[in-house]
Amino acid sequence: MFELTGQELLLICLAFFLGGVLKGILGIGLPLMVLSILGVFLSPTLVVALLVVPIVMSNLWQAFRHGLPAGGTRRLLPMSLVFVLFTALGAALLASIEETLLFVSLGVIVVGFSLFNLRGMQLVVPPRHEVWAGPCTGVVAGLLNGISTINGPPLVMYLVGIQLSKEDFVKAYGLVALFGSVPLALSYIGVGIFGFDEFIVSSMALLPVFLGMWAGQVVRSHIDKALFRKVLLVALIVLGGNLIRRGLF
């Protein structure tokens, strides 16, 4: 049993709302935003547990809303299978990772991904290399997903690298993320990270998440996406740097 103050509950609602806004605008980024904000104030293991229900439900909604990418799932199957397997492995590792290492690791992930995208860098994966690049991406994304619920950096780089259309990118990411969210939840239950109390608070976070996603979709057509993206990435670099500071000092 864990206790949260009224201020912490308000902060949780705000973080999940902002994460929902980000997902509504860009289609990704819910765990990245929530961990960057709440990781400064709460135990990262608790924050990861609270993300379980919103991640499962938002990925389920995104996958069913957008449908399958062109050509079906065959192209993504090798990466997805490895992703699911290493998600379970990463979740098992989470229970034994020291909090200091977890803070630093999360901060490095957030800062690294933000800098990579801020500089406009993009990987290109030729079709002949997908046979090994896909499973390798699944390993990295699965471990990150299991340890932190953050799978966006490697998945986004790979899906952009195989040159999917914008529509197919959203469909593919939603589908792969859904594949990883179910074993994530089951593994967290198995290792004792996600119990009844965490389930209750995590379920309560659905409301601000879906309100944020709705708000993000509403404003998506009325903002300069490039400017929003740059401001967001700079903010994430600051938040990620603070996570590293908390882990080291």
From TrEMBL:
Q: Which GO terms describe its cellular component?
A: plasma membrane
- Where is it predominantly found? membrane
- Which InterPro entries did the record assign? TM_pro_TauE-like, TSUP
Cell compartments where the protein resides: Cell membrane
Arranged from A to Z, the UniProt key words for this protein are:
Cell membrane, Membrane, Transmembrane, Transmembrane helix, Transport
Q: Transmembrane segments in this chain: where?
A: 9-26, 32-56, 76-95, 101-118, 172-193, 199-219, 231-248
* Lipid bilayer topology: Multi-pass membrane protein
Cited Pfam families: TauE (PF01925)
Similarity remark: Belongs to the 4-toluene sulfonate uptake permease (TSUP) (TC 2.A.102) family.
PANTHER family named among the record's database cross-references: MEMBRANE TRANSPORTER PROTEIN-RELATED, TRANSMEMBRANE PROTEIN YFCA
Its recorded name reads Probable membrane transporter protein
